Amino acid sequence: MAEYDVIIIGGGPGGYVCAIRCAQLGLKTACVEGRGALGGTCLNVGCIPSKALLHASHSYHEAHTNFEKMGLMGGAVSVDMPKMMEYKQSVIDANVNGIEFLFKKNKVDYLRGWGKITAKGEVSVDGEVHKAKNIVIATGSEVAPLKGVEVDQETVIDSTGALALSEVPKRMVVIGAGVIGLEMGSVYARLGAEVTVVEYLDHITPGMDGELQKTLLRSLKKQGIKFVLGAAVSGVEVKKGVAKVNYTLRKNGSEASLEAEKVLLATGRKPFTDGLGLEEMGIATTKRGQVETDGVWRTNVEGIYAIGDVIEGPMLAHKAEEEGIAVAESIAGQAGHVNYEVIPGVIYTTPEVASVGKTEADLKDEGRAYKVGKFSFMGNGRAKAVFGSEGFVKILADKETDRILGCHLMGPMAGELIHEICVAMEFGASAEDIARTCHAHPTFSEAVREAALACGDGAIHA
Asked: Within 13 Å of residue 421, how many CA atoms lie on the same side as its CB?
């Protein structure tokens, strides 16, 4: 039996970051992980491998659509899926090994196995009991099931299965037009699959700025992805390796179906708490199965905290990381804090989409007076040079104070550009502050400055 100041259950982005921060603050720390590899869903079967495949498929697309335009001539590029999967796995391995190195560097004990809270201040790891003054639940999430759709990882796959296909299917149906569905659908569409996305709502990417939703939808349609919106999937039938997806159009009740070699279920995720001992310990949960916490991530049981996908809020790796750092600092007697108003969201399609802060719909619902500064990447020289002029930057600012309230953009490197606005919002900056900051030329970031200028007298290049 070992004794610790903190035991974190879960080695994903929230858990491993929390463990490292706890150790930095002088706390004797252990992290429990049952997957057999650190990094959680994100590094093993989520964020990182999907970005590797997105990069590979984008490179393939560039070779077939833009290389010749730039004078890069040669034979046609083909797809070797086993080789691509090897590349993807090498990226995963490098990241996972990096976390193990960081644990050793910071003297965090890595407890391999499945953890269960068996008593106050006690965690059992595959039957071996460890004591801790504080316990942090960071067990993440898993794919949410959909009635009538059985995942077999052969014909009907989830996000994990989509990251391990041995060949590109001729036809793929994606159920769900959220981040996962659009990213993975984009990968296989670029590699040559005929992709159709079926979505229950009448729009894609729920919660996103309305103008971005429409612009991204147009872009993905131009890339050859088909959409069936406002459709409720009633079931999937599989016969001889071919799936039949049955759905009902909500608008008029008419029924229809689609056939495909692969069906990707991408309708969302749910907290993963199986075997954790929540009921036995009396740890309160919400109706959606999330662990209930107060303003400083404490559960209703003293000494037990929870962070990341297992609690309320957006299921984002970086949100979990922020909470991991904050709860570590709280345990160490500091003032841990997360600003939930400045949590960016990114969709890594091509073009990328990124948002932070309020949407126009949010501000209208609040009755808050605001102004809009918008600039198209058509006016950005760098974007034109790399065939990336599709999209725009939109900044929302308070009408009276000019304080930045939100930003929504679609275009090249959107996931990187959004952070200029995140920093600005953290410091309570105005649109004029961005507009008066010199930006290097030629860069994509000039589009952000132009949007800020548009909040005032007007952009220069529009």
From this structure: 36
The answer to whether 441 is a known catalytic residue is yes
- Of 267, 294, 321, the domain-final residue: 267
Q: What is the pTM of this model?
A: 0.96
Reduced DSSP (H G I as helix, E B as strand, rest coil) percent helix, strand, coil of the chain, to 5: 35, 25, 40
Task: Measure Cα distances from 251 to 202, 229, 318 in Å.
Answer: 9, 10, 37
Six-digit token pair at 52?
């590797």
- pLDDT tens column, 343-386: 999 999 999 999 999 999 999 999 999 999 999 999 999 999 99
The span from the CA of 224 to the CA of 202, in Å, is: 19
Residues in the chain: 462
Which tens digits make up the pLDDT trace of 240-249? Answer: 999 999 999 9
Q: Does the residue 388 lie in any domain? A: yes
- Split at pLDDT 50, 70, 90, the class of 94 is very high
In angstroms, the CA 15 to CA 38 distance is 9
How many CB atoms are closer than 10 A to CB 309? 29
CA distance 200 to 252: 13
The answer to whether the CB of 378 falls within 8 A of the CB of 361 is no
Give the tens place of pLDDT for each residue, 383-433: 999 999 999 999 999 999 999 999 999 999 999 999 999 999 999 999 999
Report the alpha-carbon distance of residue 253 to residue 255 in Å, rounded. 6
* Contact indicator for 369, 416 with CB cutoff of 8 Å: no
Q: Alpha carbon 55 to chain centroid distance? A: 16
Active-site residue, selected from the candidate residues 337, 419, 441, 461: 441
CATH number of domain containing 162:
3.50.50.60
Tell me if residue 230 falls in helix, strand or coil: coil
- Whether the CB-CB separation of 143 and 151 falls below 8 Å is answered with yes
- Domain presence at residue 461: no
Which residues are paired to 81 by β-bridges? none
End position of a domain, from candidates 212, 234, 267: 267
Nearest to 206 by CA among 290, 268, 289, 270: 268
**8 A C-beta contact, residue 141 and residue 270:** yes
